[in-house]
Amino acid sequence: MLNKALLLTLAATGAVHGAAVPQLQGLDSLVKPVTDTVKTVKQIAGLPGTSTDGGRFGPKWINDVAKRDDPEAVHQAQAEPVDDVNRRRDAPQLESRQSNSRQKLAQMHGTYQRNTLAQLSDSGKCNKNNIAVRKEWGNMSRQERLDYIAAVKCLQSKPSQTPQDVDKRAKNRWDDFTVAHVVNTPQIHWSGLMFPWHRNFLHKLEQEMRDVCGYPGYLPWFNYLNNQDNLEKNPLFDGSDTSIGGNGGSNGCMTSGPFKDYKMNIPENATPGQCITRAFDTSYLQQNVNADALLDLQTKPDIRSYHQQFESERGPHTNGHGAIGGMQNLILYSCQDSYFFFHHASVDRLWGIWVAQDFQNRANALDQDTDFDERHAYNFGPLPEANLDTELKLSPPWENTKIRDIMSPTGGNLCYMYD
User: Fold this and answer.
1) Is 278 helix (H, G, I), strand (E, B) or coil?
2) Which ranges are annotated Polar residues under compositional bias (predicted)?
3) DSSP per residue, 115-138
C-alpha cells in the first residue's frame, strides 16, 4: 500500500497549489525524476486530516456504521465511536504491553552503548575519551539548547556556497542543505542509500555548525515515545525560547519559538517570505511509532526486513515526518524546518542500535534489493547502486563520500554515539 500522507507533495508546493515544480538550473537530469511525479501527485486525494472523510486515520466510522442500515448502531456510533469503547476497555493491557516494550527497547539501547564502547580503545582517532555524544533534546541543559538554536540561526545568516548555476534560490548555508536534499531525493528514498546518505547528511550539518558557527555541541535527537499524546508538552515543541517552535496556526505558520519569523527562500514558488509550517497529528506516532511498533522493528533479523519496515507506510520514517505535518509533508523541502534533522538523527540512532545488537553480521549490511512500489509510483527510476564503494552525492560545495567511510559511527571521519 502506497503512502499518501507524506509523499502526496513530492512535487512540493507546486503539487499542493497547482504550480509547476521549481527547476534546478544545471541539474535537469537529477531533478527530472522528481518533476515527473507532478502528474501522479495531482491525481491523488488530499493529505490525511484535510479530506472530507478525515483522511486515512480520520473518523470514517460513522459512514461505515451507517452502511449497516442499523439505526441503533448509527446512533451509538454518532454518540461514541466503537473504537473508543474498545480502546478504553483494552487500555490497561495495552499500557502494560507498551511498558514491557519500553523496557526491552531500553535494554537494547544499553546493549548498543556497551557494544559501541567495547569496540573502542583508550587512544586512537576515535576512542573512549573523545567520542561525541548526541543527546536527546530533553536531556540537554538550557544553555546547550540555546547554543544549538544559535548555530542554526548562524547558518541561516551565512551566505550560500551553492553555485548560482546549480540553484539560484539558495541564499544562505541552511538553503545549501535543502538543495542537496532536493537533487538527491529520487536516489535516497526507498533505496539502500536511505540510511547511509542521511547519516552523511547529518554529519555535514554537524560539521558546518561546529566549524562555521562555533557550535560547541553535537546534533540532538527526538525521542518519538515522549509526549505522544500532546507534542506541545515536549520541550522540543513547547514554543519557548529553548524549543524549535510549536504547532502551526490557522494559516499553518509556526506561531511560537525562535524560528517563527524565519522566511524561507526555497521553494521559490511559495508565497514571498514563506514561513515554516506545521500541523501536528499525534496519531502518526501513537499508532505507528509506539513502543510496540519500535520493538517489532528493532528485532527484525536482517537488513532487508528492517529496511522494508522502516520505510513502509507505517514505519518511523514516514510517520516521524507526518506527525509534524506542514513542511514535513513536502519531502523535497522538509529540511527547511530544523525538525528534519532531529527526526533523522532519531532514524540514525535506531539504525545504529539495530546494528550494534550484532556488529559481526550487521556492520556492513545494506539492502540492495528491495524495490519499493513508491519508486514506481513517483517515477524515481531504477534502484540506485548501494554497496560499500558507492559514492554518496550531496551537491556543491561538498565532495562525494563513499558509503564505507560512514557505515560506522565510530570509524572514518565519524566518532559519535547517542545518549
Assistant:
1) coil
2) 95-105
3) HHHHT--SSSSS-TTT-EEEPBGG
Summary mean pLDDT of the chain: 83
Return the higher-pLDDT residue of 321 and 330: 321
Residue type, 328: Q
7-44+102-418 maps to which CATH number?
Answer: 1.10.1280.10
The residue ranges of every structural domain in the chain are 7-44+102-418
Give residue 206's identity as a one-letter amino acid code.
E
At 125, list the grid cell. 582517532
- Distance CA(42)–CA(11), nearest Å, equals 9
Task: Give the side-chain half-sphere CA count within 13 A for 119.
Answer: 21
Query: What letters, b where the CB count within 10 A reaches 16 and e where it falls short, cover 281-310?
Result: bebbbeebbbbbbbbebbeeeebbebbbbb
Question: Would you state the cell numbers that stand for residue 60, as one nine-digit string?
Answer: 470514517
Summarised one tens digit per residue, pLDDT across range 61-89 is: 223 323 333 444 434 444 445 555 555 55
Q: Give pTM, 2 decimals.
A: 0.80
- Digit-coded pLDDT (tens) for 178-222: 999 999 999 999 999 999 999 999 999 999 999 999 999 999 999
Residue found by looking up cell 539558495 in the block: 170
Angle 142-157/173-188 helices, nearest 10 degrees?
90
Q: Are 354 and 346 in contact (CB under 8 A)?
A: no
Beta pairing partners, 227: none
3-class DSSP state of 398? coil
Q: Does the pLDDT value for residue 51 go beyond 50? A: no
